[in-house]
Each structure stands twice: as structure tokens, then as C-alpha cells.
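Hi everyone, sorry if this is the wrong subforum. Our group has a chain we'd like a structural model of before ordering constructs, and none of us has done structure prediction before. Sequence below.
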Amino acid sequence: MGKSAVGASLSLIDPSEDKSHNKIVQALNVPFQKVPIDGRLLTSSQERVNLASKVVLAGEKMNKKQSSNAWFLEKASQADLELDDDLLEDDRHLSAVERVQQREATRAKQRLTQLLAQPMKTQRFGKFMSTNSATTLTGVPVALPTEPRSSQVPKMKRPRL
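Answer:
Right subforum, don't worry. Here is the predicted structure as C-alpha cells:
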């Protein structure tokens, strides 16, 4: 914050919103670099962000519990008192909703690690396989023809009689 603060902005717009966005950019007098993004990558990244947010929220809840428990333990030791285990929050005292959320967060973390291990692709499968897509999808080398096909051989002209 302040006069010397530096930041960055990202404006995700649809091609149909380009005119309106250009008006806003001109009014602000701030340059934006255009970076074309494939929409299919956005859906893939949105799934990853949703999973990551579930994992982060579950982690924040866990940290809050641990912080609360640590505070109770510290205050009890300072006062030389025994602390009742019922005052500490643990997994035994979770409600049904919290247990479901915890399971969902665990599944989200597993799915997120699977997705992050794979590169994001615009096309996972298709009706027709090209040589390049076949090698990247299967990992199996594709044999390419070494000699020209009959359609690639130049035709000889017949001599006129």
C-alpha cells in the first residue's frame, strides 16, 4: 500500500467483450498485454483451483483447531492446572458435516495431486489421431513411412506419338 506500491492486474475477457474492455483500458490509460488463452485450458485450471481451495480451507480449519488446543494447553500449564480432554478439539468431536467436509478435502487433495502430475492439454482425445497426438497420448513410438507413398511420387508424362 502507498505511493510506491507495485501490483499486477489480470483481466479475463471473452472475445465478445473485447470492445467494452478496450473502452475501459482507454479510460484507465493503462496498457494491457493481450495473451490469447484456450478456453479448454481454463476449465481444466478451474477444476484445479476448486480442488486447491477445498484443501486450503480444510487446512485452515485444522490449523485453527491446533492453535486453539495449543492455547488451552499453554494457559493450563502456566496456571499449573490439569486440562480436561473435553476442552480440546479433536477428530472425535466432529459433527457429521465436518466429517464429510474432511473426507471431501482428503479426496480433493488426492485428485489434485493426480491432476498436477499431468500437464494440461487442450485435447485429450479425438475422433482422428494424428501422428503427433498418437505419440504423446500413448507414449508408443509411431512408425513413419520412410519411402514416399504412391501419391507423393512425381508422375511421369507419357511421350506423345
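For your construct planning: Residues 58-119 form one domain. Confidence is low (pLDDT under 50) at residues 138-145.
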